[in-house]
Specification:
This protein is mainly alpha-helical. The protein has helices spanning 7-35, 40-49, 52-56, 61-66, 70-91, 97-126, 129-165, 168-193, 213-220, 226-235, 238-252, 266-279, 287-296, 318-324, 326-337, 354-383, 385-397, 400-409, 414-442, 448-489, 491-497; strands at residues 256-259, 299-302, 307-309, 344-346. Helix 1 (7-35) runs antiparallel to helix 8, helix 5 packs antiparallel against helix 6 (97-126) and helix 17 packs antiparallel against helix 19. Keywords: Membrane, Transmembrane, Transmembrane helix, Transport.
């Protein structure tokens, strides 16, 4: 193929440019708004809606297929995302920043979803099938690296600036401006590194002018086994979609809360007197007495390495006060309900600190993820998807057993947690390569870009809907039983994978000199 195509130069950062905006818009925005005083209710509602563009992106993917080149699309969208992040940074210090930054994030979300469509299509057009299978693990790995950079390094930068300036508004404003400049650098790099040619030498160019939006969209649903294919795509990540949402809460949630029956100041002493005189006797409390218990009753939170007081978070707004002090309020309400007979609340978490999470996922987990992704791509390119489909799926899902064991036995040593996370991250990197390779097969034929976007759109729906209810399920079942449920939820996808029909050697690198 006569082209300036050097995949190792452009594939890593092109996929990094897909993962970073997603991490910032979906995950980092939650932390940012929390630090800027927005209520949990508003954070949950509005940041969840930011996920929608990735679910519905198939609706406009045919336009990207028909209009312009994929390279022009993803470069334009990456530039738009860069500008959006800069605008968020400059808007944070203003009054009414919440709705204004949300509107900008919405623009960035649609641009990011469009960037994903164009980048995926570019990859499918520029590389032949044998190279696609080799680089599928690299693509997945650098996408995840971008997610880790967003959820790790960017948040660490914001935390450092919070301590430096003692001003969360200034800290997050500077952080988002820095993210905007980072995206600008990546966009410029992709402009110079990506090939100008988008026709694979092994394929004939398709006259897209003869295709309409409706025909491209409808042709996807005429594919062989489409019912089984869609069921597999929607259900394959049924367990993982819930695991991802609840895994970090499990690791950082305290082991338990318990009442301290001695006060260290006058306010705590008075609250304990109320507890002994009225709560234990089941007497009705006035609003002021109830508030005294909420704010002053001494409660101890047990983490993995220490026990520390559960401090009150002061806030003049009543609703925000309830959200910020939910743990204290829930504990006091439980005491009142059982007349002081139950003095502890077991949360069932592992009690890790934020630094522990960053270390586990930012170092050992990162190495395991990278290794798993690379090996997954190599394995498929050498022996084809058929041989590796089931082993990779099992490698991805079986590590959930580790979290079941952690939740039930709560080992004292942190090294057990390290081991479980390392195995889970390796399994994800190795196993997800098979799923992504299968989506490439589903998109085979004309209109690859639009059909791949449709497949990933259904995948996103399969992630979004279970994730929305995962918190309710976890609270009902508790962490131990929740992880058992998550493990069982992987079974439908495993069963459906055995009914999929695709070429035996699909993805196998052709033997060429």
């Amino acid at each position: 193929m006569k082209t300036d195509n050097k995949p190792w130069y452009w594939i890593p950062l092109l996929n990094f440019a897909s993962g970073l905006p997603y991490a910032v818009i979906i995950s980092v925005s939650v932390i940012m708004y929390k630090k800027l005083g927005i209520s949990n209710k508003d954070i949950g509602l509005y940041t969840s809606l930011l996920y929608l563009p990735w679910v519905i992106k198939p609706l406009w993917s045919p336009f990207i297929e028909l209009i312009g080149t994929k390279r022009k699309w993803f470069l334009s969208m990456q530039l738009l995302i860069s500008i959006a992040f800069l605008l968020v940074g400059f808007t944070i210090p203003t009054s009414g920043f919440f709705m204004m930054t949300l509107a900008i994030f919405w623009v960035a979300a649609f641009a990011s979803a469009s960037n994903d469509i164009a980048s995926d299509g570019f990859y499918l057009l520029v590389l032949p099938e044998d190279k696609q299978s080799f680089f599928i693990g690299i693509r997945s790995t650098f996408y995840r690296l971008a997610m880790l950079a967003g959820n790790g390094l960017i948040v660490l930068l914001a935390g450092y600036l919070e301590h430096k300036y003692s001003d969360n508004t200034k800290a997050w404003s500077y952080t988002m401006i820095a993210v905007g400049f980072l995206m600008t650098f990546i966009t410029v790099y992709n402009f110079f590194s990506t090939p100008k040619t988008e026709i694979n030498a092994g394929e004939k160019p398709v006259d897209t002018n003869k295709q309409s939006f409706a025909s491209i969209f409808a042709s996807f649903f005429r594919k062989k086994q489409i019912v089984i294919v869609l069921a597999f795509i929607l259900l394959f990540r049924l367990g993982e979609s819930q695991l991802i949402k609840m895994l970090t809460p499990f690791l950082v949630d305290p082991i338990k809360y318990e009442l301290v029956e001695s006060g260290s100041d006058e306010g705590q002493t008075k609250a304990l007197e109320l507890y002994n005189s009225k709560v234990k006797n089941g007497e009705k409390l006035s609003d002021s007495e109830l508030q005294s218990l909420y704010s002053k009753l001494p409660i101890l939170v047990e983490m993995r390495d220490q026990k520390k007081p559960l401090a009150e978070v002061e806030n003049k707004d009543k609703e925000e006060y309830k959200n910020a002090n939910k743990a204290r309020i829930d504990f006091v309400d439980l005491l009142i309900a059982n007349k002081g007979n139950q003095k502890t609340i077991k949360k069932g978490g592992m009690g890790l600190e934020t630094e522990d999470i960053g270390l586990i996922y930012g170092t050992f987990g990162l190495i395991a993820l990278t290794l798993g992704g690379i090996l997954g791509g190599i394995a498929i390119s050498k022996q084809g998807l058929t041989k590796w489909m089931l082993p990779m799926i099992l490698t991805m899902h079986l590590p959930i057993i580790g979290f079941i064991l952690l939740a039930h036995f709560h080992p004292a040593s942190i090294y057990y947690i390290y081991a479980v996370v390392i195995i889970e991250q390796f399994g994800y990197g190795f196993g997800f390569a098979a799923f992504m390779m299968y989506l490439i097969y589903v998109a085979e034929g004309e209109s690859k870009t639009a059909h791949y976007a449709l497949a990933t759109g259904f995948m996103a729906m399969g992630m979004m809907l279970p994730g929305m209810v995962s918190g309710y399920i976890q609270e009902y079942l508790g962490y131990g039983n929740f992880f058992i449920w998550v493990f069982l939820a992987t079974i439908p996808g495993i069963i459906l994978s055995r009914f999929l029909i695709f070429p035996k050697d699909f993805g196998k690198k052709s033997e060429e000199v």
